[in-house]
Specification:
The chain is α+β, with helices and mostly antiparallel strands and 373 residues long. The chain folds into two domains: 24-35 and 49-128 and 336-371, Immunoglobulin-like, CATH 2.60.40.2250; 137-323, C8orf32 fold. The protein has helices at residues 142-147, 159-168, 175-189, 204-210, 217-230, 282-291, 306-311, and strands at 6-8, 25-28, 49-58, 66-71, 80-89, 92-97, 104-110, 118-127, 130-131, 191-192, 214-215, 235-242, 264-272, 276-280, 315-316, 320-324, 346-349, 352-353, 363-371. Strand 10, helix 4 (204-210) and strand 11 (214-215) form a beta-alpha-beta unit. Helix 5 runs antiparallel to helix 6 (282-291).
């Protein structure tokens, strides 16, 4: 085998929410118990943690050329620092980027006749909880802000999206008031739909045209981002994966298993003039409302929901890693169309894409271990 290794850096009837809205390697992280009451959600900065995140992809015997792409943590900011990446494979593998948006990944190619093709990638990353900036934010460059206002294939900013944004922000003055109004609108009108495959598709126009605002994180947070952009507030999605349980006792706000294969999670952020890039996650509010308890909680003033509803406007917990913020990404060497987002391992052969959401023969496993100082 030619082994390689590198080390580098529908609408809810009677939802009734609107009336409630106010203005060295250690044990696996999944085995660590949550430590706090489920009625408190109060992330604080300074709680830096390091994780080794491993993705293993195994493919069926190749009948023709087969390619695989595994996302690497690209986002480097005040709440996340990628440290190293390493990989091993019995194919021709390398670390590369999409060449346009700077998205990093391991790309591997296998010729016909490989009996057990595989690629395994391990990334070390440091994370901390993120709390809303309150003063003297770093100024963002104009090109980045323009990019965060542009429509994408799945996030248009005209037509029904623009109409909805104007309705949601009616009477709001300034970027903070608009962001708050859109956050509240998404929480009040959209909902978590557990039956959706994976994290959803994020097809905002279809959601609004059909009135079916049920979905998962890539749907609900995409809706938030598209409405913000349509209202003139720079916003972007961040695509990543949950790494550890929540420290606040919420089962739905962390991973509870050694296998993180289904733990992908998309978050969002908006750029506010007085605060800089600011964390947002209305999709996780909806998730806690729908799935934290057996009954569907439909009020944001419920004692279980209120701390999360308040907290996820401006903060999130550092038990999550971001891969990238890219939309409409063309994977290098792919014969397929551009992807709406890149949050899952992807693979294709001459017959097209493998199914990253419900893989049968395309198998992958994601796991994380915390690195103790």
């Amino acid at each position: 085998m030619n082994l390689q290794r590198r080390a580098l850096f529908g609408r809810v009837a009677g939802l009734g929410l609107a009336a409630t809205l106010p203005g060295a390697l250690s044990t696996p992280v999944w085995a660590q118990a949550a430590t706090s009451s489920s009625h408190r959600f109060d992330p604080q900065t300074g709680d830096w943690r390091s994780f080794d995140v491993t993705t293993r992809v195994d493919l069926p015997a190749t009948r023709g050329v087969t390619r695989v792409w595994v996302p690497l943590p690209t986002v480097q900011t005040g709440w996340q620092v990628p440290v190293t990446d390493a990989f091993t494979s019995n194919g021709k593998a390398r670390i590369t980027t999409d060449g346009h948006q700077g998205v990093r990944m391991v790309a591997a190619e296998f010729p016909a006749g490989v009996a057990q093709p595989f690629v395994e990638v391990t990334s070390r990353v440091r994370t901390q909880s993120r709390v809303e900036a309150r003063q003297h934010p770093e100024r963002e460059d104009a090109a980045t802000l323009r990019h965060a206002l542009q429509p994408t294939h799945l996030l248009p900013t005209d037509g029904i999206v623009r109409e909805t944004a104007l309705k949601a922000t009616r009477g709001a003055r300034g970027d903070e008031a608009k962001a708050r109004a859109i956050y509240d609108w998404v929480v009040a009108n959209a909902w978590r739909e557990p039956k959706v495959k994976g994290c959803g598709e994020g097809d905002v126009k279809t959601m609004l045209e059909t009135g079916n605002l049920g979905g998962k994180c890539a749907d609900l947070n995409a809706l938030f981002v598209a409405l913000c952009r349509a209202a003139g507030v720079p916003a972007r999605d961040l695509y990543g994966v949950r790494l550890a349980p929540s420290s606040f006792g919420y089962q739905q706000l962390g991973s509870g298993s050694a296998n993180l294969t289904g733990a992908q999670h998309c978050r969002a952020e908006v750029y506010l003039q007085a605060r800089g890039w600011t964390a947002m996650d209305p999709a996780d509010v909806a998730k806690v409302m729908r799935q934290e308890r057996p009954e569907w909680i439909k009020r944001t003033d419920d004692p279980l929901i209120a701390p999360v509803y308040r907290g996820l406007y401006g903060a999130w917990e550092g038990n999550w890693m971001a891969y990238n913020t890219a939309h409409d990404i063309k994977l290098p060497g792919s014969q397929g169309d551009a992807l709406g987002f890149f949050m899952y391992p992807m693979a294709e052969n001459a017959e097209g894409w493998f199914d990253q959401y419900t893989p049968a023969e395309f198998r992958y496993k994601i796991s994380a271990s915390e690195v103790k100082a």
